[in-house]
Amino acid sequence: VMFAIVRRYRTTSGKDVASKVRSEFVPRISKATGFLAYYVVDEGFGHQFSISIFEDREAAELSNKLAADWVRLHPALLPVPPEIFSGEVTAHQRPHREGAA
Q1: pTM reported for the whole predicted model
Q2: Which SS3 state, helix, strand or coil, does residue 64 take?
Q3: Could you give the residue ranges of the DSSP H alpha helices within 2-99?
Q4: How far apart are CA 90 and CA 95, in angstroms?
Q5: CA distances to 11, 78, 79, 98 from 47, in Å
Q6: What is the pLDDT along the chain (101 residues), one digit of tens a residue?
Q7: Residue 52 and residue 2 in contact, taking contact as beta carbons nearer than 8 Å
Q8: Which residues are paired to 53 by β-bridges?
């Protein structure tokens, strides 16, 4: 079972946020217990959303605290609290790679 958290943010500068996320937040969340994957998607028009995938609900919900703590450090870039959606991953597929075990 996997669990996903989607956070949708309004940003003042998508490029600045992306740079800080890569350099500051990704190293932090990737060390979290149960971490599987993290993605950020730029919707344009001042909106970005992140997708965090964890091994279970508890680990995913703890990532919300990591994200909230990080957002509090950057109020000028992320002035509005994010919308947060979460749930169990019920279907997924990874590409089959030749020679992969």
Answers
A1: 0.86
A2: helix
A3: 14-20, 26-29, 57-72
A4: 17
A5: 6, 10, 12, 37
A6: 899 999 999 988 767 888 899 999 999 999 999 999 999 999 988 899 999 999 999 999 999 999 999 999 999 889 999 999 999 999 998 888 776 55
A7: no
A8: 4, 37
